[in-house]
Amino acid sequence: MRIEHIRNFCIIAHIDHGKSTLADRILEICGAVSERERREQLLDDMDLERERGITIKAKNVALDYRARDGKTYRLHLIDTPGHVDFSYEVSRSLAACEGAVLLVDATQGVEAQTVANAYLAIEAGLEIVPALSKVDVSTARPDAVLQEIETSLGLDVSGCIRTSGKTGEGVVELLEAIVRRVPPPQGDPDRPLRALLFDSVYDDYRGVIAYVRLHDGRLRPGDKVRFLATDRTYEVVEVGQNTPRPRRVQGLAAGEVGFFAAGIKTLGDVKIGDTLTLAGRAGAEVEPLPGYKEPLSMVFCGIYPTNNADFPELRKALERLRLNDASFTFQPETSEALGFGFRCGFLGLLHMEVVQERLERESQISLVQTAPNVTYEVVTTRGEVLRLDNPARMPEPHLIAEIREPIARCSVVCPAAAIGAVMKLNEDRRGSYVRTDYLGPERVILVYDIPLAEIIYDYYDQLKSATRGYATLDYEITGYRADDLVRLRILVNGVEVDALSTIVHRDKAEQIGRRIIRTLRREIPRHLFQVPLQAAIGGRVIARETIAPLRKNVTAKCYGGDITRKRKLLEKQKEGKRRMKAVGNVEIPQQAFLAVLSGREEDERRK
User: Fold this and answer.
1) pLDDT at residue 412 above 80?
2) Higher-confidence position of 400 and 498
3) pLDDT for 433 beyond 90
């Protein structure tokens, strides 16, 4: 395929705006799937994606399209996720393309992630082709949505394509616009190989499968290639493309997107964003391509196997997942309550939920998660600045000068009638007002600076409730700000449970502490001795509950006689319980951790 007949593009949109459905129609029009193979969300091959109805992993596919000018074009399509937590997948997809289809739902209009993804594409220098989806729905308002696109993004909407992924309306016109408006890739097939590694997966039989976009040169089976970042050399065994099924090809040339296998078994040898070139003298002078900005994990939690014997298997599962998801990080840690596990970093709360579910499904390991928390900056009295992602590692209070927390710039798109409810919610979450932008007479964008710790729990759920489901959220981290933060310690029978420690604002410490120990009192079984549950800040207890001991009537056999006989038995029982409490160990079941971390007690109280 000649390079001027190649078009590399991706589809970007807010979540649930019809990206996967549009991709299905494009595959059908290009003849990539037969009638027997046709199904919804064809590119979303992960069970989790199909169950949740969202795209988690970006998927690439090579298609041949015969345009109206009589020429056949090779279209490299990348379907990207829409949720804010997977924006790193979007940025990697943009680096492998020259154009982007900005898809906007004609019934919902411009949403928060629509704006964020559009700016990512503009910053990457891509040619943007705006398109409307779901124009066949009776509630569609295409003219008003076009006005929103022009107002919020400043894009020229005169050539916007109106499509319906369900009926196929306008999809051919969209493909013609892509062929006409997206520029062909730049590159020289005769120069030394230079390719960008933008994704990878692991296969039990073939090892690491690396997905690359070739900027220069050619890649064929038998070539010896070198990764510039790790300086490792391998011989290519197989080269192929997804059409959408994996298909072997004789080779890839400049401008094309595909994958290769080289028997790579060491997962650390492959680094997303690395540059691939030929080994030896041919690739000695090749300059590395601009990679990606390393993702900064903002939400952390501990992941532990329910059975400690599964720790080695959990490590292998995390390594494989890290290969497939470059924005996910982990390192080993030990908890007195939960044993051996890993401290894991994520881009957001949905990212954390998806990773845990993928681990349990793909590795068949039962897991326990600690409470999610964010990264804090602690300034000590010596002037040192420490970055802490685990509350258990916080210095003693007398050694701390100030604690800084990450601040998220939140953009909430909501109906104008819900402005009051959204502003009250944001102020309750310690948010500070920035500005209001009107998309039209009925829809606005409210911008607030809110501490990240205030939005990682149930902020999104409450936002949906306050706006009857019409609000959408996008956020980015803008920096750190000092505030009156404290470490909340949870003690069971006088022993601190490090897995439940958290950093909270002083004004909310008592409320959160009472909620946690109420949940523990309900979930921890009664022992033969009294078990005190305490929430403390430093050495000061701010909340307490007590689990009453199991009682045995030791005087039941005394049906008569002197009262001193009964008193003697009661004193003996009391002394036994005192000794038992001094040496006894309180077993905290896994259900207690899960109940605290899921906030189940809070949900029951609301009911």
Assistant:
1) yes
2) 400
3) yes
Pairing of strands 246-248, 99-105: unpaired
Q: Is a pLDDT exceeding 70 seen at residue 392? A: yes
User: Based on the domain organization, do 576 and 461 belong to the same domain?
Assistant: no
End-to-end CA distance of the chain: 63
User: Do 497 and 419 belong to one domain?
Assistant: no
**Mean pLDDT, residues 260-278:** 84
Specify if 291 maps to a domain: no
- Which helix (H) or strand (E) segment is 521 a member of? helix 506-523
Smallest Cα–Cα separation from 551: which of 529, 572, 535? Answer: 529
CATH code, 561: 3.30.70.2570
Q: Which two tokens stand for residue 12?
A: 């970007």
Q: Decide: 374 and 296 in contact? Cβ < 8 Å.
A: no
User: Do residue 409 and residue 423 come from a single domain?
Assistant: yes
pLDDT bucket at 132, cuts 50 / 70 / 90:
very high
User: Structurally, how many domains does the chain consist of?
Assistant: 5
Distance CA 158, CA 435 (A): 29
What's 279's domain CATH number? Answer: 2.40.30.10
According to the model, what pLDDT value does residue 219 have? 92
Banded model confidence at residue 450, pLDDT cuts 50, 70, 90: very high
Per-residue pLDDT averaged across 58-86, rounded? 79
Sequence-separated (6 or more) residues with CB below 8 Å from residue 497: 336, 337, 490, 491, 588
- Measured CA to CA, the distance from residue 69 to residue 276 in angstroms comes to 36
Rounded CA separation 251/240 (Å): 7
Q: Which amino acid is at 177?
A: A
Give 3-state DSSP helix, strand, coil % of the chain, rounded to 5: 30, 35, 35
Give the range of the structural domain holding residue 338, as residue numbers without chain letter.
299-371
Residue 236 pLDDT grade (very low, low, confident, very high; cuts 50, 70, 90)? very high
Q: Check whether 342 has a pLDDT greater than 80.
A: yes
What average pLDDT score do residues 12-32 get? 82
Residue 292 lies in a domain: no
Please report, for the domain that includes residue 318, its CATH number. Answer: 3.30.70.870
Q: Of 182, 170, 181, 160, give the one whose Cα is nearest residue 76.
A: 182
H-type helices in 162-256, by residue range? 171-181
Which residues of 282-431 form beta strands (DSSP E)? Answer: 299-305, 329-335, 339-346, 367-369, 373-374, 376-380, 385-388, 400-415
CATH number of the domain at 408, please: 3.30.70.240
Instruction: Give CA–CA dist 387/509, Å, rounded.
Output: 22
CA distance 383 to 405: 17
Collapsed DSSP state (helix, strand, coil) of residue 304? strand
